[in-house]
Amino acid sequence: MMPLLTPLKGFVGVYRVFIKSGLRLPAFDFLESVLDYYGLHIAQITPDGFRKILCFTLLCIALDVSSTINLFCHFYIPMSNGDWVSFSLLHGLVEICDGLSTSIKY
Q1: DSSP letter at 25?
Q2: What range does the domain containing 50 cover?
Q3: What is the mean pLDDT of the chain?
Q4: Which of 64, 71, 98, 100 is the most buried (most CB within 10 A)?
Q5: Are the C-beta atoms of 95 and 44 separated by less than 8 Å?
Q6: 97 neighbors 52 (Cβ within 8 angstroms)
Q7: pTM for the whole thing?
Q8: Is 8 contained in some domain?
Q9: d(C-alpha 40, C-alpha 38), whole Å
Q10: 32 — phi, psi (to 5°)?
């Protein structure tokens, strides 16, 4: 099967690694909050950036803490590389979601 490089009219393309990392549609509310806050489209988030948003959301659920933009911004800062955006951990904290894919190349 050939990869689809351009989504059909009325559709949005996402990276396969996003689906393998847990993205389901409709997307979780916090992802939409992050995209809106930073003025981003999902295709602008790197796989590693998506992984960090997902891990943050899951950790908040596990700890019974509301996942808010203010809390996310306390731990992460956006890092841009051209048109791509990822998130870098602040405050010398240790990444707790190691071992997940950080690349769209498997």
Answers
A1: S
A2: 16-89
A3: 79
A4: 100
A5: no
A6: yes
A7: 0.70
A8: no
A9: 6
A10: -60, -40
